[in-house]
Description:
The structure is a homodimer. Chain A has helices at residues 3-27, 30-37, 41-48, 51-60, 75-91, 93-104, 114-132, 142-164, 169-184, 187-192, 196-203. Chain A is mainly α. Chain A folds into two domains: 3-59, Arc Repressor Mutant, subunit A (Orthogonal Bundle); 75-203, no CATH class. The first copy, chain A, is elongated, with a radius of gyration of 19 Å. The relative contact order of chain A is 0.11. Chain A binds chain B through residues 24-26, 100, 103-107, 111-113, 116, 137, 139-141, 144-145, 147-148, 150-156, 158-159, 161-163, 172, 175-176, 178-184, and chain B through 24-26, 100, 103-107, 111-113, 116, 137, 139-141, 144-145, 147-148, 150-156, 158-159, 161-163, 172, 175-176, 178-184.
Amino acid sequence: MQQRAVRTREVLLRAAAEVFDEVGYTRASIxxxxxxxxxxxxxxxxxFKSKEGLARAVIHEQAADLQFPQGEPGLQRLIDMxxxxxxEMQQNTLLRAGVRLAVxxxxxxxxxxxxxxxxxxRFREELVAARARGQLLPSADESAFASLLxxxxxxxxxxxxxxTKRADLPGRISAMWRCLLPALAPADVIRQMTTSATAxxxxx
Amino acid sequence: MQQRAVRTREVLLRAAAEVFDEVGYTRASIxxxxxxxxxxxxxxxxxFKSKEGLARAVIHEQAADLQFPQGEPGLQRLIDMxxxxxxEMQQNTLLRAGVRLAVxxxxxxxxxxxxxxxxxxRFREELVAARARGQLLPSADESAFASLLxxxxxxxxxxxxxxTKRADLPGRISAMWRCLLPALAPADVIRQMTTSATAxxxxx
Lengths: 204, 204
């Protein structure tokens, strides 16, 4: 695509994310999205075909604006990623809309499972690195744990959104790790890990 | 309520569950629900006021048709409950519709968090019993773990529904327990526990 077409697609994707985030799939209209983007409906049809195409793009590209924490691959970076995601869910509209649509996609009949596998693979890579660094218990299964982490994160996010509009998501993710870490790593490794909760305590 | 009114409400609730399970909140119509129930729209307005009222009732009463496993309260019964729920999700329409609506409720603007707390409390009761029976590690926090279990179950159910229409849900719940148990109980207690997967192995 030419530079201008690429830019138009980006503007549309983000306008769609804003509208999906605010009102959900059913109540979102092409008109409200193109008005938000300052474009015409023709641009949607050219780049995405339909509202459904826009929703699929928002789901698939939900991570496009993320800048994952740097640092050594392994258990600490996995924890840092989940802490970072908890904060991003509060302020990153593309991520939030993509997650919302992925959770509520039955209402839109989308059947998009691949994004869940994508996240599981991202988490699994860190667990494989953690294994190579000797950070995991022999019993811990990297693939199974990565899937569980996606499931637990998804459910935690839903519960946080319903109970506090995600204000307590970082705290819930720290609580999740306090529960999970003893199944994943030996006590001496856990003691070296910093979660957002322990970091907050250290700053206090 | 008189017997007949109670019966009418039951019939409506189950007809609504069937329709919500099949087409979701947005596409469900009062007409399709009362047609399914063999009743008139007046019955809906009398008992539930609106489609929204029906959806709230299906969420709140999602567990009404469950018969939880008997047996000693504690860790084994908690595992048995989650195995039982995995099978019920495949065949119990009221449960399935209630869970679907609870997950996708943003689309319907319902803000119903209480059902998640209700499940967490059910799970916590078993963990408290497990603690009294000496089945839990000193580090395990019953309340935090109960919440995590609801979150992990919710996310696992979503992923199973998208990937296999819930055919693999029992297997995913067994995998979840294999990941979680080492954080919850000492090795000698874990060895005494039976999950649906170990039960299947024992039968083979």
